[in-house]
Write a structure and sequence with these properties.
It contains 15 helices and 18 strands. β12, α8 (281-289) and β13 (293-296) form a beta-alpha-beta unit. It folds into 2 domains: 6-56 and 377-434, Urease, subunit C, domain 1 (Roll), CATH 2.30.40; 58-370, Metal-dependent hydrolases (TIM Barrel, Alpha-Beta Barrel). Strands 3-2-1-4-15-16-17-18 form an 8-stranded mixed β-sheet. α2 runs parallel beside α3, α2 (97-113) packs antiparallel against α15 (440-452) and α8 (281-289) crosses α10 (311-317). It has helices at residues 81-92, 97-113, 139-151, 188-195, 218-231, 243-253, 257-263, 281-289, 298-303, 311-317, 333-348, 356-363, 365-370, 405-411, 440-452, and strands spanning 7-15, 20-29, 32-37, 48-56, 58-63, 116-123, 154-161, 166-167, 173-174, 204-210, 235-239, 271-275, 293-296, 321-323, 387-390, 418-423, 426-430, 433-434. By secondary structure, it is an alpha/beta fold. The structure holds zinc ion. Zinc ion binds at residues 62, 64, 122, 238, 274, 326.
């Protein structure tokens, strides 16, 4: 992903973190923004023109690429998170490095079309069904990293420790179920050994994840935390998505999942709790005081009937917020951003918990930081040239003055309004068309169909 020559982009309107600036020229060199020139009312000769409102690229901080195969299927009938999980396992059973690569390439291409320039892939389907390692024990993770390269987006592969099916006591968990055998490395030490072989690339960084307190026995949490600490890598963990997880943790350990993570050194500024839905006041203080981030996944949380997490209180306590499309019921970061605010409005019957600027920060700068891409998520000199342009002249976005572009983008636009996506100065989506993956709907249909038969 190196681009030796300089290229100039002219942004009709640019989102500069606090306001919309008309007429901005960006000089891009080696994939980074070399200069930001304001008050450029007309495109300089030879510049690539980005009409609409250009935002910093969007970061999808929580993804399970294979869940895309469940779209539609799991919206039939009723049930709970736990019945949904059974359907999800039946798809996981059928994945191979080849089918996973094809699906993830199409899903990441869908993300690029939605303006997403970086994805955090919370990856736990490591081995062949039954738990036998592939010849390359990282074949599945490598398939995801390669898929992101082919779809033109950045990836943080959050390689996930998943060792047990349920909490038992301090030292042990219940063994994985048949479905879960392929998720498990057997021990956190074996997980660490396998992950240590994975290497960062231009478009890819390696991070760690703890699936949840039910999937990693307490005595092994510190091993994963230490691995991430030594590499200064991001560490993510599903946290208190379901009340049943809290109940089981109290029974086994006499404390909440957040307290358990705190006791074992998991919390900290490079750690992100995903969902953080059912928390006590003490949990919120622990997360905030430690600078642990929160990744909200509102479209999944509402699809799975999880509940509404205390995002306002978490942020006030000191926990930075990011956003993820998680199960990919839909892939639309703008929808995730507005859903976080609109959930709070319904709960509190008051409006305006976050400004559009704050919601965009969660969708870009803070999301990138949660994935270890601190140098992305703002339009400024030295930042990675990752950009997303939203049309301001579609049926959804026409009308408001450009000065209100951020409000229009967050509260009215959808993924369908993304006109351009640029990653490291490379035009991955141009005029709504993916430049690397020719027919994304067909690629998705084929990849999903291959998992059905
Ligand atoms: Zn998840």
């Amino acid at each position: 992903m190196t681009h030796p020559h300089t290229r100039t982009y002219w942004l009709e309107h640019a989102w500069l973190d606090t306001h919309v600036e008309p007429g901005v020229a960006l000089d891009v060199k080696d994939g980074r923004i070399a200069a930001v020139r304001q008050e450029v009312p007309t495109p300089p000769p030879g510049a690539e023109i980005l009409r609409g409102l250009t935002l910093p690229g969007l970061a999808n901080a929580h993804s399970h690429a294979f869940h895309r195969a469940l779209r539609g299927t799991v919206q039939v009938g009723s049930g709970t998170f736990w019945t949904w999980r059974e359907v999800m396992y039946s798809v996981a059973d059928r994945l191979t490095p080849e089918t996973y690569h094809a699906l993830a390439r199409a899903v990441y291409a869908e993300m690029a079309l939605a303006g997403i320039t970086a994805v955090g892939e919370f990856h736990y389907v490591h081995h062949a069904p039954g738990g036998t390692p592939y010849a390359d024990p990282n074949a599945m993770g490598e398939a995801l990293v390669e898929a992101a390269a082919e779809a033109g987006i950045r990836i943080t592969l959050l390689d996930t420790a998943y060792l047990s099916s349920a909490l038992l006591n301090k030292h042990r968990g219940q063994p994985p179920t048949t479905h879960q055998l392929r998720f498990s490395d057997g021990s956190a030490d074996a997980w660490a050994e396998r992950c240590s072989v994975l290497k960062d690339r231009d478009h890819a960084r390696i991070g760690a994840a703890i699936h949840s307190v039910r999937a990693v026995p307490a005595a092994q949490l510190a091993t994963v935390a230490r691995w991430a600490e030594e590499r200064r890598a991001p560490l993510h963990v599903h946290l208190s998505e379901q009340t049943a997880e809290n109940d089981a943790c109290r029974e086994a350990h006499g404390c909440t999942p957040t307290q358990l993570l705190a006791e074992h050194g998991v919390l900290g500024p490079r750690t992100t709790g995903v969902h953080n839905t059912h928390l006590t006041d003490e949990d919120i203080a622990l997360l905030g005081d430690s600078g642990t981030g929160t990744c909200m996944c509102p479209t999944t949380e509402r699809d799975l009937a999880d509940g509404i997490g205390p995002a306002v209180a978490l942020q006030r306590a000191g926990s930075p917020l990011s956003l993820g499309s998680d199960s990919h019921a839909v892939i639309d970061l703008l929808e995730e951003a507005r859903a976080m605010e609109l959930n709070e409005r319904l709960r509190t019957r008051t409006r305006g918990h976050w400004t559009a600027a704050a919601l965009l920060r969660a969708a870009s700068a803070d999301g990138h930081a949660a994935l270890g891409w601190d140098e992305a998520g703002t339009i400024e000199e030295g930042a990675l040239a990752d950009l997303t342009t939203i049309a301001l002249d579609s049926v959804r976005t026409a009308g408001p003055v450009p000065r209100l572009g951020a409000e229009t983008a967050v509260f009215a636009a959808t993924a369908a309004d993304v006109r351009h996506t640029i990653v490291g100065g490379r035009h991955v989506v141009r005029d709504g068309v993916h430049t690397l993956v020719p027919d994304v709907p067909q690629a998705l249909a084929r990849a999903v169909d291959a998992l059905r038969t």
